[in-house]
Design goal:
The structure is a homodimer. Chain A contains eleven helices and 25 strands. By secondary structure, the first copy, chain A, is an alpha/beta fold. Chain A has three domains: 6-117 and 261-330, FAD/NAD(P)-binding domain, CATH 3.50.50; 131-257, FAD/NAD(P)-binding domain, CATH 3.50.50; 350-465, 2-Layer Sandwich (Enolase-like, domain 1).
Chain lengths: 481, 481
């Protein structure tokens, strides 16, 4: 019988799996048990839109690893099992299996990665309608199967998506790809509210070009079942208010709510954990919760942002990194989470939208004095066929010249996703905008410019906001065009 | 009459133009005169293969800026004019115009950007044969027109390219695109000798797939005109030795020599400048030559490599940056060139090959103890259609864990060019390989992975070469696959 540390992990998504794998890597004697609420450990939640669209034919391919691969690493998994309470002093958890049986499980160390749950907006009818009526939230594989069940019903031709954030936009593409007429309703003035409105407008243009009917500044207030004979065959009637407060309404077959997530912190809170922004559990850079022997990671905890401090910023990339830190430390390690920059990218049809760091209002809140410039630069030399423009908005600090953030909108094939990563790497090191010009970046006419597009954007920022500041070198905005 | 500094710049390519533009930017009173040896100032030499291929229809589009655009910045250009000597003490240069007239020109400050000239390998016949015979070197626009003249002759069906470096490979693609049968002869064991042979082999596979006949380990020793009746109509007979020293020969219509460049330093050397590696002029980080009032930049000078020290590394990106520093300092500035990492990328048909930093033998020469790992990672999640692999070879220091360099081979559409730039930015900041895992890089299934491909490669390096070293976080090689 093994004498290794008994590590129990609550949660089988990015944070939990990463914690388990890392713990076994650091301490191969550790006995690691994962308690997974459903039957789908280690699934790529980010991949759900591509299964719904039909681009991923078999949902099983959404697994980062199969159950067999996970078990080959000696992780023990208990599927369809929920943790109902943590007895911190007793080093034990209470669990309930799918058949309703309850038991307790002792642990030496505990990692909690319960993730997040979808926000339910205050819409009349939402509490009584559900998947059987064609009204869906989307966060788990079970949610996914419920949605595809609705979509596969005969006569389904239209959908309304509440929310135009990352998942809402990906779902607009997915449902359009399936052949549905899609209405996308966003309460804020522009889609993709995580970027500035001038950039979000470029995403909206792509949605509109692809036939999505976008309604910004509109609030959905009620969903109701309708008599199909009165509404062109549609099953649901959605009502709300338009930008000027006027009543608006849509008849659709399916309603999908995608207005974000909130931390699923109930288990840890009940055990005595402290919460911070948005109700997420406060952890240190070591992912310790403050509860003896309990670490936590992923969408249920706060994230330290390298420029903005402690915040709530649920992202899969972050969950992977935090999970690894938690897993390593739970078996005696001294790892530290290095912090997030909020780097994100989304593909919406053929548009790619990315950001890293802070936008102006976020930078102000974090104590900086941000100023921004927007540049449109080609992804490669214009003389080589296929050049496409990338819109790059750079935000820097007016006092220090420090790079604070960047937002990019390009098209597929423009390497926009990895261009934001160049800027994320520069941000990680606290570079000034001007010093971006000292980076030795690659160039060949079919793939770039002697000054890369991100450096052209830096040149424009410097010219507009720091013309008198000494630089290592610089160029005019047009010099590498 | 202006009382501004009289700045004279020798050379109208990347370094010279960048110097002129920057000087005018910093000191709008400066009188800037560029002496340009030919009629093509500010042309993109890197774009020549795409004009030869036919992808760029009008050679004028290869100009980064038109003559009118340059003159609009108040730069004065003297085209088709050569500088024959510099009188450093007298602050004056002697010039010769296209019609043979000579004159002198006074200056207050001088920037020299004479660039490089193609290396002429020791091949019998090369000194007597030229463009009229179908034998070409390729460095200037005049060279380009001579080559396209040869290619447009009737009956031209085949070409032999001596050398398989960046330009040689791009020309193999260009001539294949034009419909020619192309032989590519490389003396070294593998094409693209600037990357390790296991990676160069991937480039060779693409060449072969596209019909290029590649002959590695083969040396061309002679080129001769031939009687067309004896050689299937071809005009030139090329002979040499194969990998085992055996005689080899080819009958072709055109021979193109692309075996690299050497600095065109004669003018500065005659004026008393000191030379370093490969005969390039030694300059400081301020691009000063040591000759009073004389700065130099670009392919005619040495380059400080941030990891390897002073070397010769002629690249357009570097010429732009050095030129800007020289121009700024020539009008009283205090700019410093931040150094190169030798970041490079080339597209060969649908393969993209990139590198940054040092390969093992270069790292050894620079005093490091390099160890490397090669990883094959998908550009994005495998479940999303179109995933393609990228081969990433990471080199790090065995003692310190410091990242020393990386080489990447991917296909078009895999964002390989900007992935090398993430690594270049990390290298710039002296990151360890393990710390690459702390970078907050972007992720969406169609464009990446929760751990980006470059981070997967870092994980493999850490597992192979630094398994016991503490890390902020880490993952197994397969964990994000």
């Amino acid at each position: 019988m093994s004498t290794g540390t008994r590590l129990v992990i609550v949660g089988g998504s990015d944070a939990g799996i990463s914690a388990g794998l890392r713990a076994r890597e650091v301490d191969p004697s550790a006995e690691v048990t994962l308690i997974v609420a459903d039957a789908y450990p280690n699934f790529s939640i980010c991949g759900i839109p591509y299964f719904v669209s039909g681009e991923v034919g078999d949902w099983r391919n959404l697994a980062h690893r199969t159950l067999a691969e996970l078990e080959a690493t000696a992780l023990q998994l208990r599927l369809d099992t929920r943790v109902t309470s943590i007895d911190v002093g007793g080093h034990r958890i209470a669990i309930r299996t799918a058949d309703g049986a309850t038991e307790t499980l002792d642990y030496d160390r505990l990692v909690v990665g319960t993730g997040a749950v979808p926000v339910r907006p205050p819409i009349d009818g939402l509490s009584t309608l559900g998947p059987a009526d064609g009204v869906h939230l989307l966060h788990t594989m079970d949610d996914t199967f419920a949605l595809t069940g609705s979509l596969e019903r005969s006569g389904v031709r239209s959908a309304l998506i509440v929310g135009a954030g990352y998942i809402g936009l990906e779902m607009a593409e997915a449902l359009t790809t399936r052949g549905l007429t899609v209405h996308q309703v966003e309460m804020l003035p522009e889609v993709l509210p995580t970027v500035d409105v001038e950039l979000g407008a470029l995403v909206r243009a792509e949605l509109t070009d692809r036939g999505v009917q976008v309604h910004c500044g509109a609030a959905v207030t009620a969903v109701a079942r309708t008599d199909a004979r009165d509404s062109d065959g549609a099953r649901l009637h959605v009502t709300g208010t338009g930008p000027a407060g006027e009543p608006v309404g849509w008849d659709v077959d399916v309603v999908l709510i995608n207005v974000g997530v909130r931390p699923d912190a109930a288990l840890l809170v009940a055990a005595g954990a402290t919460t911070g922004p948005r109700g997420a559990v406060i952890v240190g850079e070591d992912m310790a919760t403050g509860l003896p022997g309990v670490w936590a990671a992923g969408d249920c905890v706060v994230t330290r942002h390298r420029l903005a401090g402690v915040t709530y910023l649920p992202l899969g990339t972050t969950a992977h990194k935090q999970g690894r830190v938690a897993g390593e430390n739970a078996v005696g390690g001294t790892a530290r989470y290095a912090g997030s920059l909020g780097t994100q990218v989304v593909k919406v049809f053929d548009v790619v939208a990315a950001r890293t760091g802070l936008r102006e209002h976020e930078a102000v809140a974090a104590g900086y004095r941000p100023v921004s410039s927007t540049t449109v630069a080609n992804d490669h030399k214009a003389y080589y066929p296929g050049a496409q423009s990338i819109t790059i908005r750079v935000t820097g600090d007016a006092d220090t010249g420090r790079l604070l953030g960047a937002q990019l909108i390009g098209r597929r094939g423009t390497e926009t996703a990895k261009r934001v990563d160049i800027l994320a790497t520069a941000l990680f090191h606290g570079m000034t905008v001007a010093d971006l010009l000292t980076l030795d970046l690659s160039y060949t006419p079919p793939l770039g410019s002697p000054w890369d597009a991100v450096q052209m954007a830096a040149q424009v920022w410097v010219a507009q906001h720091a013309p008198g500041r000494p630089m290592t070198d610089a160029d005019s905005a047009s010099s590498a065009a």
